[in-house]
Amino acid sequence: QVQLVESGGGLVQAGGSLRLSCAASGSILRINTMGWYRQVPGKQRELVAHITSGGSRNYADSVKGRFTISRDNAGNSVYLQMNSLKPEDTAVYSCNADLVERGLGYYAVTYWGKGTLVTVSS
Questions:
Q1: Tens of pLDDT, residues 48-82
Q2: Disulfide engineering: 49 pairs with which of 42, 43, 69, 85, CB 3.0-4.6 Å?
Q3: Computed from CA positions of residues 43, 48, 51, 56, in that sequence, does the dihedral angle turn out positive or negative?
């Protein structure tokens, strides 16, 4: 069994900061990529940021310069530092991991956390 558990969401005023955390646990051989996605009602889920095992990072244009993704490979965790938050950042943020489980060969599967709500007030 593999689980991803997010934390760090909450209510913050515009211009404030939050740091999201996601911890992967279970029988994991390796994690290839981890990322953060967000979704609001009536809109498609969108990629916020992702990071590879080698440290390569990508960001959505809307968060570049404000958000920073980082990864603790030893601890199987990924973080999202969110600065200069805007009301339009309000969404449920979900952690994603592309990983290989122990004993299941070399193919990777995708896991999702349940999400954490970020609300930014104006």
A1: 999 998 899 999 999 999 999 999 877 699 999 99
A2: 69
A3: positive
Helix (H) and strand (E) counts in the chain: 0, 11
Nearest residue to 85 via CA among 33, 1, 4, 8: 8
Task: List the beta bridge partners of residue 75.
Answer: none
List C-alpha distances in Å: 1 to 4, 31, 116: 10, 14, 21
Amino acid identity for residue 67 in this structure: F
Dihedral through CA 11, CA 14, CA 16, CA 18, nearest 10?
A: 40
- In this prediction, the residues of the chain whose per-residue pLDDT falls under 70 are 75
Q: CB–CB of 66/77 below 8 Å?
A: no
Structure tokens at 54: 């080698």
